[in-house]
UniProtKB/TrEMBL annotation:
InterPro entries: Chaperone_TCP-1, Chaperonin_TCP-1_CS, Cpn60/GroEL/TCP-1, GroEL-like_apical_dom_sf, GROEL-like_equatorial_sf, TCP-1-like_intermed_sf, TCP-1_chaperonin, thermosome_alpha
Protein's name in the database: Thermosome subunit alpha
Organism: Haloarcula japonica (strain ATCC 49778 / DSM 6131 / JCM 7785 / NBRC 101032 / NCIMB 13157 / TR-1)
Gene3D superfamilies associated with the record: GroEL, GroEL-like equatorial domain, TCP-1-like chaperonin intermediate domain
PROSITE patterns: TCP1_1, TCP1_2, TCP1_3
Alphabetized SUPFAM superfamilies for the sequence: GroEL apical domain-like, GroEL equatorial domain-like, GroEL-intermediate domain like
Annotated Pfam families: Cpn60_TCP1
Magnesium found in the keyword field: no
Lineage start: Archaea, Methanobacteriati, Methanobacteriota, Stenosarchaea group, Halobacteria
Amino acid sequence: MGGQPLFILDEDAQRTHGKDAQSSNISAGKAVSESVRTTLGPRGMDKMLVSDDGDVVITNDGATILSEMDIEHPAAQMIVEVAQTQEDEVGDGTTTASVLAGELLTKGEDLLDDDVHPTTIVEGYSAAAELAQDAINEIVLDVDLDDETLVEVAESSMTGKGTGDVEAGKLAEVVVDAVRHAKSDNGVRRDNIEVHTQTGAASSATKLVEGVIVDETAVHDNMPTSVEDASIAVIDTELDVRESNIDAEYNVSSVDQLNAALDAEEGELQGYAEDVLESGADVAFVTEDVADRVASQLAKEGVFVADSISSSTAKDIVEATGAKRVGSLESLDEDALGHADSVDVEKQGDDDVTFITGGATAESVTVIARGSTEHVVDELERALNDALDTVIAALDAGGVVPGAGATEIAIADHIRSEAASIEGRKQLAVEAFADAVDVLPRTLAENTGLDAIDALVDLRAEHESEGIAGIISEGQTGVVGDPVDYGILDPAAVKREAVDSATEAATMIVRIDDVISSS
């Protein structure tokens, strides 16, 4: 080589390594975590997110905030992925997971400054995460998951979120009713519960419909707006004159030829209408277009038809009514029809929507979320979806635990009690994990107006003497008490997932000591 330098990277590539890389990554992760920290708890604040196009989102939902932020730093993106994983797995606890990940990074940075090796930190955090899971299992409440308990779970999830002019407790009852309707012997099918948003009324008008709602309405003004005991067809083909797949010119040289062509076209359209009528359907949902002449003929016979419905809407109708999707009218017969108690067109705000209620396979339900503005109804939709997910998680994934920071206090206490049995520097990382978990009750205390240090001391003392202690929001401040007595409950699955996802993200970032970016 003659002593000449060997260039491996492109000259425009940038490389950061060693402590500089670790510091940069940890700082980016902490910054993202801090951006959602003030939204935690019943007294959490909202964020206003404004896009380049001027679109505005107002929310305190952690997953929404992080997904709307324009984040470029790769380490910061990992925190966003933590929130997304939490949202995908259990539907709630995204802020908890993000804040915990950020605090684990903060404590990890302190350990790095004290010359604790990243691998030791990872091993200690992993051991602490296992201890945390043990603590969660020990604190799961031995209670029946009846409607009253589930309402408390749903209400806890929505407290502090934008619910317009209606109390979270009223919405929680709607949520639990929806989950109960969608519950079967195999658990709750989340896909059978839809949240339909509509502006033009107060949030207190939010209600549950046993069925599905379709935005499309009848294609002809003379069609009925209400059909009782409906036989429903779902058709995946166009009810219009078929067009040739090749370019062709037709030379019409006489009036007779023109009339023959028109008669053939009319006959084709008439045949479509007759096929629908002969099947016995009095309601048809078509994913393609329906010709005006077909619609007119069916209107005369009192058949309700909606066209150009989406594939997902067709799927919802099939699941609610038991209909079979047919790709041709030749396949449309009585066996392919679904059934519903009624199909009704109603005005919601400025729009007409179609209600399909009492379907033959009716486990499908729809929560109609109302609000006076788009911002209100969007935030209400997020709150309802979170509440639905938390109730389902409580039913299907391991019960409930005390909320209000009580579970986190129990986790930190259990980890500290076990840390002494861990040898070497790994013990420092285990203890640091316990200190990081304290950020959650500490943040709840700050957001309720309490002194964070005093509140943490009181929480530990109360937990030591009573076994359960959390931060309860009362009026303009907070008190230390038993969250179970106040009906503040969280799904155990939310806590488990938050610990796992936050630990994985933090350990991944701590291990990075080299960042190479190309131009």
